[in-house]
Amino acid sequence: MLNFVNSIFLFSLSRTVRSFRTYFIVSFLFMIIFSCSYPLGTRSFQLDTPIFHNHYHPDRSPEPKSFKANFEILWQTQLVEHPLYRDSWSFQHRNIIERSGMAFDPMRNTAYIGLSEGTILAVDVSTSEIVWKYSGHDAITSNVVYDHDLLYAGTMQGELLALHRSNGSVVWKYQAGLAIGKKIVVSDSAIFFTTHDDNIISLEKRTGNWNWDYHHYFEKDITLLGTPSPFVQDNFVYAGFADGSLFCFSAQTGSKIWSIRVKSDSLKIKESNYFVDIDTQPVLLDDSLYFASYSEGLYQIDPTGGKILSSNTNLSSIFEIRKSSYLSHILYLRTGSGKILVYHSQKQKVITTIELQRNLITGFLETKNRFIVTDAEQAIYFIDHSSGNVLEYLLNDRGFIAPVFVNDHEILSLSHHGTLYRLAIY
């Protein structure tokens, strides 16, 4: 709603103000007034149903307990000098770090952050000071992942970077072709990643030497290119593709072990809204592998042979699957509509939905008793598992990417305006 009001104002203003300088000054003043109208504050409400009902947790009291959380900004620092650019078509200001990724290194107490403007930063979490900065010319599109003394990240132009964790200097680069997918996976000896032309590649992680790759061909006029991530388990690599196929490869040689495809007759269907692309990284839970197709829903398969064990085609537009770190048989499914579906694998159904009143969910963390959720606007939420009670904290900022833990009571979160926050929860 806020974005809509802003858009109408700026569009009307563009019709009456001919001078670009005047337009820019008035727009800038309006944004300042707009952002200041929402000071830091809190709000509490309750989900329609508790996240976990008592018959799933018989040891919990049937009566909802009071839910309290103290929230404190320990520090905040601006990482990007010019976080916005003006879109001449919509007259809106866009964020240049919307694809940013972040990883926290507890051994060095350092956060590594890749930005859409092409830079990678190492930030001392104790002091908020920037330890080093790598400046590139291409947007970082993947996660940032570290292993031993190296740091890895992928770019929009298909370049995989390996940097020294201590100073950010380049160790090696590998040109893969098109943009690198959202998640790089590191095993004992290799790196695995996908590109936007449905290619999966394995490299030797110390040298960047090519191990193997597989390019998947399909009829591109039928579906959209997905953004899946590979999953590595033991000596096997599982990867999804844009035509709804899931392959199992040998991690060492890249030879195909088995493959399956959802909705085998999908290529005969020409409706423009029919997309079977796999956008999720497969997840292993209770000896079964789970993955999701955009239009065909959630699938449970046998990881040894690829046999489909169950499917739920009603669960569409799933972009992320994550298993619970604390609860048995629970999967969290984040959808394109900004919801989190809580799925019970044994009952094979969604037991509740996390849907916030203000905006779309952009990321979440799980603790033993609560969720920490960020949204696309100004809020960070704390949701109690058993009662469904929600505490909402508003910040004078815009949009947050997925947060990361510093410890059990502190998180890091990066806003779309380029501000990094260290937040404490008590």
Question: Overview of this structure, please?
Answer:
With 426 residues, this protein is mainly β. It contains two helices and 35 strands. The protein has helices at residues 2-16, 20-36, and strands at 41-46, 71-78, 84-87, 92-95, 101-105, 110-114, 119-124, 130-135, 145-147, 150-154, 159-164, 170-175, 185-186, 190-195, 199-204, 210-215, 231-233, 236-240, 245-250, 256-261, 283-285, 288-293, 297-301, 308-312, 318-323, 330-335, 340-344, 349-354, 361-366, 370-375, 379-384, 389-394, 404-407, 410-414, 419-425. It has a five-stranded antiparallel β-sheet with strand order 1-32-31-30-29, with no helix packed on it. The protein is globular, with a radius of gyration of 22 Å.
Topology:
Layout: H1 2-16, H2 20-36, E1 41-46, E2 71-78, E3 84-87, E4 92-95, E5 101-105, E6 110-114, E7 119-124, E8 130-135, E9 145-147, E10 150-154, E11 159-164, E12 170-175, E13 185-186, E14 190-195, E15 199-204, E16 210-215, E17 231-233, E18 236-240, E19 245-250, E20 256-261, E21 283-285, E22 288-293, E23 297-301, E24 308-312, E25 318-323, E26 330-335, E27 340-344, E28 349-354, E29 361-366, E30 370-375, E31 379-384, E32 389-394, E33 404-407, E34 410-414, E35 419-425
Antiparallel strand pairs: 1-32, 2-35, 3-4, 5-6, 6-7, 7-8, 9-10, 10-11, 11-12, 13-14, 14-15, 15-16, 17-18, 18-19, 19-20, 21-22, 22-23, 23-24, 25-26, 26-27, 27-28, 29-30, 30-31, 31-32, 33-34, 34-35
Give a short synopsis of this structure.
The chain is mostly beta strands and 426 residues long.
